[in-house]
Amino acid sequence: MEKSLRCVSSKAERFCYITRVQSFSACHRLHSKSLSDEENRRIFGKCNNPNGHGHNYKVEVTVQGKIDQNTGMVMNLTDLQQYIEEAIMKPLDHRNLDLDVPYFANTVSTTENLAVYIWDNMVKLLPPNMLYEIKVHETDKNIVVYRGE
Ligand SMILES: CC(=O)C(=O)[C@H]1CNc2nc(N)[nH]c(=O)c2N1
Ligand SMILES: O=P(O)(O)OP(=O)(O)OP(=O)(O)O
Ligand SMILES: [Zn+2]
Fold it and tell me: Which chain positions lie within coiled-coil regions (predicted)?
């Protein structure tokens, strides 16, 4: 009789959060079409300068789940990197967010909206309920966290 090997563990599967970090470069201009030029200048200051400015953004993508008893992984981080390549690097790296990314044609390219955009792209590629958090560092001092609310 063929023996089948079954892994049976008495330990409850542990629940983990794993994060992959990715940087990308892009430029933008903070400008709202629903405001006057004067209001834009007043509100966004130097970030409203017509020719825009750049950032080296850093994104932290965190997924959640149980540790698989056979692989020891929540998810293969190599797979997560492929999803990040598709959802973040391809559309955003070395782009002008306002001119090259249709989403930002009528949405102010703040870090808040960028985090939402990245969440919406990532959630389409990941298994249900695995995406936990998107954290975007616009500068060393400006950081936004989005968890899908
Ligand atoms: C600094 C910059 O270069 C910005 O573009 C900043 C300016 N202020 C600001 N405030 C927010 N609440 N969200 C932003 O993305 C942001 N960008
Ligand atoms: O937000 P900014 O434009 O001022 O850019 P920063 O990286 O936060 O630098 P600082 O706050 O020191 O100007
Ligand atoms: Zn900026």
Answer: none
